[in-house]
Amino acid sequence: MRLVLKSTTRGSILNWGKRRRMGGTGPFIPILGVASCVVFIYLSFGDLWPAYPVGPAWSFVQRNGTRFMLDGKPFYINGWNSYWLMDHSADNQRKHKTTAMLEAGSKMGLTVCRTWAFNDGGHNALQVSPGRFEEKVFRALDHVIAEAKAHKVRLLLSLVNNLKPYGGKDRYVKWAWEEGVGLSASNDSFFYDPSIKKYFKHYLQTMLTRRNTVTGLEYRNDPTIFAWELMNEPRCMTDPSGDTVQNWIEEMSAYVKSIDKNHLLTVGLEGFYGPKNPKRLTVNPADWAADLGSDFVRNSKVSHIDFASVHIYPDHWIAHRSFEDKLSFVSKWMLSHIEDGHYELNKPVLFTEFGLSNLNKDFQPSQRDWLYKTVYDIIYKSAKRKRAGGGAMMWQLFVEDMDDSNDDFGIVPWERASTYKLITEQSCKLAKLRGAIEENQNLKELCLRKQ
């Protein structure tokens, strides 16, 4: 049972004592005993009560056709990925990195951060085993959400990984196999095994109805959460037709919406076109992309999916091509998906990951600037034309002294002035289109300096 201590309680305790000293009547000793217990509980378990200022009420981000909307205005996203926020918040020695990252993102005018709301098994596991959750780690996620609100940043929370890091579908399959209920040892059985789907639905129910121990809000009622993402980069190699993933998306999206009707929902796709969309196959980076069991248009058309998601990794997908060719591919890739969002889906398209590896043999830091500029320019032009490009989120940002968590795509943005300038200029350009610079003090200060 969650205790709720109203703000007037401490004052009432003092008033009881004051009345007694002034000769008041009443059962003072029993009341004092109860009051002492309340004070003891408050001092011992203070984290059961909100520790953050409530501030102005936030609205949920919604969508109207191909555009995200907030408070009656179009909402364009200049965002970023920091997958590690919950993991670091579960460790007191690293917890401050979460606050530092969210504060830095806010000061750069970034409005949405995508991060993991899962860790299945292993170190700092949120879900230790099916239906068994580690409260310490859940409180770490509570902290992430509360810190995001305090810094005026919204969160895109991903719910499971297609890949093995942080558990992913591999962990679910192993759990079912270990319990003797799994149909197959194939990782793809995550999408069709009834026992595994039951595990995942229980996880969804627990996540969506979680009551934040810091803010007091259930996650499904908290507008700090911009949207949910069903899975990071779903693939089903054993069924290239795409039917297995399609059925899973339809079932799980309907289940999420049966519990949470407030938040937007996306799939978490990379954006590849499948074999049932032949006219778009030439847009794929190569033939292999059509055999991964996903299909951008078909998957994104599911009625409970509110917006489409796309990733951009030209150096991995067409590694043998020149950098100029890679930039040309990025333009073609983005414009194709924005066009699909406008004409085929009537939904926004959010480019939820884009980046460039520093392990490329010809890598130069300036290449990242060119990639960022290409992505940002296309998003801005789409927004100006009121098309379906809803925004873009770089993979990924860190603060200083995080080499143990970084990868070959990560950056500390203020370490390179030209990159920092590109990011912050995009924030101001999109905010100006929305007419919302005055609504956020960080944006106001940032953008006035740039005028």
Please characterize this protein's 3D structure:
With 451 residues, this protein is an alpha/beta fold. It folds into two domains: 1-49; 57-450, TIM Barrel (Alpha-Beta Barrel), CATH 3.20.20. 41% of the residues lie in helices and 12% in strands. The strands form three sheets. The chain has an eight-stranded parallel β-sheet with strand order 10-9-8-5-4-13-12-11. Strand 2 (67-70) and strand 3 (73-74) form a beta hairpin. Helix 12 packs parallel to helix 13 (417-434). The longest helix has 23 residues, at 323-345. The N and C termini lie far apart (53 Å). The model is unreliable at 1-50 (pLDDT under 50).
Task: Please name the defining characteristics of this protein.
three-stranded antiparallel sheet, mannan endo-1,4-beta-mannosidase, 451 residues, EC 3.2.1.78, alpha/beta, TIM Barrel, transmembrane, membrane, transmembrane helix, eight-stranded parallel sheet
